[in-house]
Structures are given as C-alpha cells and as structure tokens.
Amino acid sequence: MKVAVLSGKGGTGKTFVSVNLAAAAQNATYIDCDVEEPNGSLFLKPENVTVTTVHTLLPAFDAGRCNGCRKCVDFCRFNALAFIKGKPKVFPEICHSCGGCVLVCPAGAVSEHKRPVGRVERGMHGRVSVVSGVLNLGEASAVPVIRAALAEGLTGEGHTIIDCPPGSGCPVLESVSASDACLLVAEPTAFGLHNLQMVVEMVRLLSKPCGIVINKMEAPYEPLEEYCRQSGIPVLSRIPYGETLARLNAAAQIACEQDPGSRLLFDALLQRMEAEMKP
Ligand code: SF4
Ligand code: SF4
Prior knowledge:
Layout: E1 2-6, H1 14-25, E2 28-32, H2 40-44, E3 47-61, H3 71-75, E4 81-84, E5 87-90, H4 100-104, E6 110-125, E7 128-135, H5 143-153, E8 159-163, H6 170-176, E9 181-186, H7 190-206, E10 210-217, H8 222-231, E11 235-240, H9 243-250, H10 255-258, H11 260-276
Parallel strand pairs: 1-8, 1-9, 2-7, 2-8, 9-10, 10-11
Antiparallel strand pairs: 3-6, 4-5, 6-7
Helix pairs in contact: 1-11, 5-6
One iron/sulfur cluster binds at residues 59, 75-76, 78, 80-81, 90, 95-101.
C-alpha cells in the first residue's frame, strides 16, 4: 500500500509517524517529499547513500535570431519573462519549464538548457529503502524535486510511506497524487482541529481512503473527537504524549526500534491501516 502521511501544519509529528511506520513495516520504502526541510533521514540514518541531481529546463535566448516581437513574454502565464532593453530576460526561479516560449517563438530564437534545482538521495536503513528529495536553497517550486523523489521511490516492494510537506498547497497535492490512501496526523488542540479540517477538505476532493492519527495525546480533546465521529474518518491510533517518546524523538531515534511499547503501537497502526484504508 502507498500511504501519504499528511498534516495541515508542521510540528504535528508527521515525520515521526512516517519513519516509525516505515521501520515497523520493515520491508518498506520511505519517501521524504517535504523537500524544503527533509528530516526523515536524520532519524533513519540511511547507509550507502547515492545522490542524483534533479534538473529542470530553462529557456535561453539567441540575441542574433530574436526579432523583438515579445510573443514569448506575452505567452508566459507565470510572468517568468520580462522584456528589458529590447530583449527577453528569464527569471529562473519563477519559470515552470512549460516549454511554451520555445513553441511560440516565430524566429527559432529560444532553446532550452538544463538547470539543477535539487537532488534525490537514496540509501538503506536495514530493509527500509530511504528516498529523500532535497530542494536547492532559493528555489521557488518544490514540485520537480517531489516528482523525482516519487519516481525514484515508488518502484519499491512492500509498503511505501510518503512523508508529505505540511499544508494543503501544490507540493502536497503532488506528493499525495500517487498514493492509495492518506493518513492524517492531528494534534488534540483547537489549532490542530482547524488544520485537520483543511486537510480533510483537500483529501475528500481526491476521493482516497483516509485514517486519522491523533498525536501528542494527553486527554481527549472533545471537539476533535466529535469532528472525527461526524466526518466518518476512523481514528486509527492515539499516540500518547509521554516522556519516553519525547526523549527518543529529541535524540533522533526511531521509537519503535528502541521502545517495546512504541513497537506495539505502530504494529497496531499498520494492521488497522491495512484493514481500514484499503483502496
Ligand atoms: S518555459 Fe514556460 S514558464 Fe518558463 S519562461 Fe518559458 S513560457 Fe514561461
Ligand atoms: S518570441 Fe522569439 S523572437 Fe519574439 S521576442 Fe521572444 S525570443 Fe525574440
């Protein structure tokens, strides 16, 4: 099963849940699509890491051929081109590599060349294949690196755990697109409930099976429990807010490999995912 792990905001424990699920499943692939801040490998500490550079295509302009018609600038819906001193100029961070400016140029003055925007790292943690997308600093679009990480990781056997970026924007949609089901991680607070509602709206549009994990739970937060009941989405696990988990997490340890209680918790979560989130 390919499971996207989501939360409406950072800090809910999305990566904590993802890396522990992958470790509990053992024969699994973990894909870190939170490419602006990939931190799953801090926990999984993969060995024998290989690195592949991710490129996008960027237009280049031949001043000798350009007749100054501005068709390329007018075409670009992303405002990545400006006409300056009689010549088109591209702003690389905004360009979406759609190739449109190449097609509309009547003078054959536009060509494309490769530009590095990030990398995909792949290594092993025991039997868990660890794939991390890493976006270069200053890049505006995470999507090309997310696509490359998914292309690298989705070929694996066993469970695939996709650690998505926070929020509900384009990078999240891209990360969720290839999954069979979505696991939504929420905190038992008013803010956590609000963020969960945002993510539920998004995954409902995608019509994928869902389950909820309530993390950092001390006592039930009744508005969240009521929302889960009304939404009809099953709560598959309630992870307690305890000192052991907090200490292991702070030390970048995989809790289910160090603590028998955590192992039982994540084994049970895997079983419920398999039973209740079937595509
Ligand atoms: S490739 Fe597309 S997004 Fe980039 S400059 Fe050309 S038209 Fe604009
Ligand atoms: S469409 Fe071609 S010829 Fe026209 S301004 Fe752009 S590069 Fe120059």
